[in-house]
Amino acid sequence: MYVFFRLYGNNLLIIINTHKSCRSAGFIAVHATLASGDVDLCLVPEINIQLEGEEGCLPHIMQRWA
To answer: What angle do CA 46, 19, 45 make, to 5 degrees?
Structure first.
């Protein structure tokens, strides 16, 4: 498992990268998000993710951090 932390002003970016064989990656991500209570976006590896476009997560993050 690879975990990356970076602080942008008052915003903390956390990236957790696991192998696809790790069946609990989504469970860990969701419960860490719920425990924090201050998360803008949680990407669960078991769900297809759209990065760009109207329903994408990148415009959402750019709007939240603007």
So the answer is: 20
Q: Cα(62)–Cα(29) distance, rounded to whole angstroms? A: 21
Complete DSSP assignment for 4-65: EEEEETTEEEEEEE--TT-TTHHHHHHHHHHHHS--S----TTS----SSTT-HHHHHHHHH
Q: What is the pLDDT tens value at each position of the chain, 66 positions in all?
A: 556 666 666 666 666 666 666 667 777 777 888 887 777 777 776 778 787 888 788 887 777 777
